[in-house]
Automatic annotation (TrEMBL):
GO molecular function list: electron transfer activity
Gene3D superfamilies: HUPs
Residues annotated as transmembrane: none
Electron transfer flavoprotein alpha/beta-subunit N-terminal domain: residues covered: 22-212
InterPro entries with a match to the protein in the record: ETF_a/b_N (IPR014730), ETF_b (IPR012255), ETF_beta_N (IPR033948), Rossmann-like_a/b/a_fold (IPR014729)
Organism in which the protein naturally occurs: Candidatus Fermentithermobacillus carboniphilus
Pfam families: ETF (PF01012)
Protein name: Electron transfer flavoprotein small subunit
C-alpha cells in the first residue's frame, strides 16, 4: 500500500505574534515542531505498513527549514519525504495549500493519504478534506480507530462529537486522524543516524505543473481568503477575590447578584 502522510511544521509555542499589517504569523525566530496530530497520522501509516506492507512517504509544504519535520519522520521510520518549497507557494490559504499538496500527491502516486485532523496554528481542519475533494477521492475525518485494513478497503471509527461512526471506506481514500488513534512512537536515535544523509526531495511550482496559467492556484494569488483583521478578544470579565466568613460572603454574594440582575 502506498501511503502518503501530510506533515506540517508549526510554532512550538502558542504565543506567536501576528504581523499587524499583513495579518500573518510572525514565524521568524520562533522554534518549530511537527504538528502533534501529524505524528499520530505517521504512526497510523507505519502500523498499516507493518500490517499490509507497502511504503510511507511524508509530504510537507513550507519554507526550507520545514525539512526538519521530514527528518523527524525519517527517524520514526518513514521511507521517503518530499518538501514543497517555493516562493510561489508563499501566503497560501487553505485552498491553495490543499491545491498544492494535491498536485504533489498525484505526482507521487498513492493508495491512502493520512493527515492530522487539524493543525495547532492555523487550526482550520480544512486541508485534509480540501485535498480529498481536489483528488476526487472519499475521505473520513476525525478517525479515532482503524479496525481493519485490506488492500481494497479500510474499516474505521470516527468521532463526531456526540457519537462514534464506524464505516468501511474504499481505497484510494484520505483519513484525518485524532489524537485518540494511537500513541506515536518516539524518534529513534539509531534511525536518525542511519538517515542523516537520506535525501529529501524538494519540489517547486515547476515540478508540479508545466502550465504557467495554473500559477494563479498557488500561494497568495490562489488564495481567495483575505485576513481583514486579527485581534485578541477584549476581556470584559473583571475578577474579584472576596474574603470573609461564609455568612458574610453569602450575604455579599446575595446583594451582588440582586444588583447585577437589576442592571
Ligand atoms: C490569507 C492567508 C494568508 C496566509 N499566509 C500564510 C503565510 O504567508 N505563511 C504561512 O505559513 N501560512 C499562511 N497562512 C496559513 C495557511 O493558510 C495555513 O497554515 C495552511 O493553509 C494550513 O491550514 P491549517 O493550518 O488551518 O491546517 P489544517 O487544515 O488545520 O491542518 C490539517 C492537516 O492538514 C495537513 N497540512 C496542513 N497544512 C499543511 C502543510 N503546509 N504541509 C503539509 N501538510 C499540511 C496536516 O496533516 C494537518 O494536520 C495564511 C492563511 C491565510 C488565510
Amino acid at each position: 500500500m502506498k501511503i502518503i502522510v501530510l506533515v506540517k511544521q508549526v510554532p512550538e509555542t502558542s504565543e506567536v505574534e501576528i504581523d499587524p499589517v499583513r495579518g500573518t504569523l510572525k514565524r521568524e525566530g520562533v522554534l518549530s515542531k511537527t504538528n502533534p496530530y501529524d505524528l499520530h497520522a505517521l504512526e497510523a501509516a507505519l502500523r498499516l505498513k507493518d500490517e499490509v506492507g507497502g511504503e510511507v512517504t511524508v509530504l510537507s509544504m513550507g519554507p526550507p527549514q520545514a525539512e526538519a519535520v521530514i527528518r523527524e519522520a525519517y527517524s520514526m521510520g518513514a521511507d521517503s519525504g518530499v518538501l514543497l518549497s517555493d516562493r510561489a507557494f508563499a501566503g497560501a490559504d487553505t485552498l491553495a495549500t490543499s491545491f498544492t499538496l494535491s498536485r504533489a500527491i498525484q505526482k507521487i502516486g498513492f493508495d491512502l493519504v493520512i493527515a492530522g485532523m487539524q493543525s495547532t496554528d492555523g487550526d482550520t481542519a480544512q486541508v485534509g478534506p480540501g485535498v480529498a475533494e481536489l483528488l476526487d477521492i472519499p475521505h473520513v475525518s476525525y478517525v479515532r480507530e482503524i479496525q481493519k485494513a485490506t488492500p481494497e478497503a479500510l474499516t474505521v471509527t470516527c468521532d463526531h462529537g456526540d457519537y462514534f461512526l464506524t464505516i468501511e471506506v474504499r481505497i484510494p481514500c484520505l483519513l484525518t486522524v485524532s489524537r485518540d488513534l494511537n500513541q506515536p512512537r518516539l524518534p529513534s536515535y539509531r534511525k536518525k543516524k542511519l538517515t542523516k544523509d537520506k535525501p529529501v526531495q524538494v519540489w517547486g511550482r515547476k515540478d508540479l505543473t508545466s502550465d504557467d496559467s495554473s500559477e494563479e492556484y498557488f500561494g497568495l494569488d490562489g488564495s481567495p481568503t483575505r485576513v481583514e483583521r486579527i485581534f485578541a478578544p477584549e476581556r470584559k470579565r473583571v475578577r474579584e477575590i472576596w474574603e470573609g466568613t461564609p455568612g458574610d460572603l453569602a450575604g455579599r454574594l446575595y446583594h451582588f447578584l440582586k444588583e447585577a440582575r437589576g442592571k
